[in-house]
Amino acid sequence: MRILGIETSCDETGVAIYDDENGLLAHQLYSQVKLHADYGGVVPELASRDHVKKTIPLIKAALKEANLTQQDIDGVAFTAGPGLVGALLVGATIGRSLAYAWNVPAVPVHHMEGHLLAPMLEEKAPAFPFVALLVSGGHTLLVDVKGMGDYTILGESIDDAAGEAFDKTAKLMGLDYPGGPRLAKLAENGVAGRFTFPRPMTDRPGLDMSFSGLKTFAANTIRANDDDEQTRADIAFAFQQAVVDTLAIKCKRALKETGHKRLVIAGGVSANVYLREQLAEMMSAMHGEVFYPRNEFCTDNGAMIAYAGMQRLKNGETLDLGVKAHPRWPIDQLTAIKA
Ligand SMILES: Nc1ncnc2c1ncn2[C@@H]1O[C@H](COP(=O)(O)OP(=O)(O)OP(=O)(O)O)[C@@H](O)[C@H]1O
Ligand SMILES: [Mg+2]
Fold first, then answer.
1. Contact indicator for 208, 157 with CB cutoff of 8 Å
2. What percent of the chain clears pLDDT 90, i.e. is strictly above it?
3. Which of 175, 271, 307, 308 is most deeply packed, by most CB within 10 A?
């Protein structure tokens, strides 16, 4: 069985084809980063309009890449939320219409379930159960994953998402949008120990997180110090270290609480090398293992939507003739899929 997956929830248009026997057959991605760069962030209306232009050409390109025609597709999955409503509506309308025209089921997919399941596309895929740390531009979630679709939220950020904190701090440092990866690059030359940022909400029990204070701390540190390249790198390093340390402390607590031995990290920030290194070290000390997607599947992509869509299609979760888009949609409202 083969499914086409469409992702348009934010500023990436992603399309992929997944085969339940042969795995991923094609994936195409168009990033709108340049379109939004002048504004320092995503402009929703521009995002929607660009998805309108790019989605159909990418679907054609994916079919060509896989050497398939529309007759070979058994279902169409699309991101139904959470995300920007206008952007979601583009993928939902195209996905639903194509499924109707091709006479195959349409499958609505939860964007964060897509991120959470992205490591399943790798050779080293995690077995259930595990703890998932979802760290992206819009979300910071710790999830107890007992099985496919069986999600309990253990903790989340009460303010900025981890990726958002990276982006906002990068902006304060004068780095271009999207700042997260640029700040991480700057931190590579940073020296440990010169600055110490707080580890928010780690001094009390619980698994919720807070990252907006780090941005303020960064602003004050930048103001109080010289603007030479080494100082900038040292500040970037200290900021990154504080975010990563905080995430690691919360992951360790979540693993202890659930008793799970496997940790999955996904979403854009899971591409962060320092985060991966620190969590790998922590998991090895705990006799466990950490799993993450390849870099290109950490940020938004169609492959994760096609994969999640296949699981939902096999579970019979198809859509009637309406178009569905949910800008807000908690991940724990999904139904568990029996193995
Ligand atoms: N190496 C890195 N270090 C830190 N942050 C990174 C790195 N690479 C990407 N990011 C951050 O990841 C985020 C983008 O990830 P992603 O595409 O998953 O988020 P999103 O789709 O915008 O949000 P959501 O999935 O919550 O709707 C940005 O905030 C970006 O700065
Ligand atoms: Mg995303």
1. yes
2. 98
3. 308
Q: Which helix (H) or strand (E) holds 141?
A: strand 140-147
Cα(138) to ligand 1 centroid in Å equals: 8
Q: Is 95 in the pocket of ligand 1 (CB under 6 A)?
A: no
Residue nearest to atom 27 of ligand 1 (CA): 138
Per-residue pLDDT tens over the stretch 130-173: 999 999 999 999 999 999 999 999 999 999 999 999 999 999 99
Long-range CB pairs of 272-278, under 8 A, 24+ apart, other chains included: 272/180, 272/184, 272/240, 272/244, 273/184, 274/184, 274/187, 274/240, 274/241, 274/244, 275/135, 275/243, 275/244, 275/247, 278/244, 278/245, 278/248
Best of 85, 157, 166 for a ligand 1 pocket test (most atoms within 8 Å of beta carbon) = 166
Ligand (nearest to CA of 164): 1
Q: Determine the distance separating the centroid of ligand 1 and the alpha carbon of 322, expressed in angstroms.
A: 31
Distance CA 210, CA 159 (A): 6
Please give the helix or strand (H or E) that residue 143 lies within, else none. strand 140-147
Scan for tokens 């293992």, then name that residue. 289
